[in-house]
Write a structure and sequence with these properties.
28% of the residues lie in helices and 33% in strands. With 388 residues, it is of the alpha+beta class. The chain starts with 5 loop residues before the first strand and ends with a strand. The structure holds zinc ion (ZN).
């Protein structure tokens, strides 16, 4: 028997950078062993498939969808994607995640099929555009700064072996000179790296603005010896306030530094790393997947369309849409694809004309199949909704 609303039981990822308290305190997600709780996954990616619960028992969301793709996904999404095309996560970062880039779809397909090496660089054949919506103030480094800023920031450190690529970047700012500079930085000899770190830590407050310095201090706490400590000098450093969002296209170098956020992405786990990590850095793959163009903070931030009781974020990819509802009462909703809703704050009630009702508290999520069609939503706090 099919239902209109399926409560989800989701996978928690205990990555080392995760907070031991944030998901438990905010969303009552049990943490009996005091583990770092980095991510909560909602979706059907093989690395963390949600379970659904109903009176008949429980099964995986992937099985539910596979059982009747047209009813669950809707014929449009079933035809275009064949499965749930997005992955919804809650991130709780106590310390920085690795500096990373996600491949374009063609690069992921080629890389996933080509690779034989171990550990692999590609986990699947999909791209991974991502949207981040801040629940708490959320520190992130995203996208290359303007070349002139990068040159200014690095010149202050006087690193001799970077001169050969900094000067061309200053004179001829373009993707080639940006890439050459980045590669020379990633290959900085150990002794010069150490000297530059010493200078950076001694003088960070006099060399740079307070915001940039605060990112370096934060990173230094956990990665005192990592090439990623230079990242604030060449990446934009921004702090999203609760309710603010940003979007990252594949190819954008980024690192999330601290805070709790909703993250929505195409259903993929492809990550190429560039620092702030103990994991393998494959410089050639990383460079091949990185877009060496500056992007401004204004371009990264999303300006939602505001409606009465809800906000709609204009996502420039087809894999997912993202809305946030707050303080609404019996709002008419229409579902035409596979949706996941997650309660950020307060309580939500989902009603269907058939009489089916589901109440969700903060931290709880539900899957809504395409066949549910018309329903109504009441939210005492805030709820996010992901659909296609
Ligand atoms: Zn990412």
């Amino acid at each position: 028997m099919s239902h209109c609303f399926y409560p989800l039981v989701n996978v928690v990822k205990n990555y080392a950078w995760g907070s031991r308290s944030a998901l438990n305190a905010r969303f009552h997600i049990p943490n009996p062993d005091n583990q770092p709780q980095a991510e909560l996954w909602m979706g059907v990616h093989p690395a963390g498939i949600s379970q659904i619960i109903c009176e008949e028992g429980s099964c995986s969301l992937a099985e539910l969808i596979a059982g009747d793709k047209t009813a669950m996904l809707g014929s449009r999404v079933a035809g275009q994607f064949g499965d749930l095309p997005y992955l919804l996560k809650i991130l709780a970062a106590e310390r920085a995640l690795s500096i990373q880039v996600h491949p374009q779809k063609a690069q992921a397909q080629a890389g996933f099929h080509r690779q034989q090496n171990n550990p692999p660089d590609y986990n699947d054949d999909n791209h991974k555009p991502e949207l981040v919506y801040a629940i708490t103030p959320f520190m992130a480094m995203n996208g290359f700064r303007q070349p002139a800023e990068i040159v200014r920031n690095f010149k202050k450190l006087g690193i001799a072996s970077l001169e050969a690529t900094l000067n061309p970047l200053a004179l001829h700012p373009c993707t080639e000179t940006m890439q050459a500079f980045f590669v020379s930085l990633m290959q900085l000899p150990q002794d010069e790296k150490q000297k530059a770190f010493t200078r950076l830590f001694d003088e960070v407050e006099s060399l740079y603005d307070a915001n940039l310095a605060s990112f370096i201090f934060r990173l230094r706490q956990h990665y005192p010896d990592d090439i990623g400590l230079f990242a604030p000098l060449f990446l934009n450093c921004l702090t999203l306030q609760p309710g603010e969002a940003m979007f990252l296209s594949p190819g954008t170098l980024h690192a999330y530094v601290q805070g709790v956020a909703v993250e929505v992405m195409a259903s993929s786990d492809n990550v190429l790393r560039a620092g702030l990590t103990d994991k393998n850095i494959n410089l050639a793959e990383l460079v091949a997947c990185t877009v060496f163009e500056p992007i401004s903070e204004e371009q990264l931030r999303m300006a939602p369309a505001k409606h009465a009781g809800w906000q709609q974020y204009d996502v420039p990819v087809e894999d997912f849409c993202f809305d946030v509802y707050s303080h609404v009462n019996n709002l008419a909703m229409q579902t035409t694809s596979a949706e996941i809703v997650f309660v950020i704050d307060g309580q939500a009630a989902l009603h269907h004309a058939s009489g089916e009702v589901l109440t969700l508290n903060a931290g709880q999520a539900a899957f809504i199949p395409a066949l549910t069609r018309d329903w109504t939503l009441s939210v005492s706090g805030a709820l996010c909704r992901v659909y296609v």
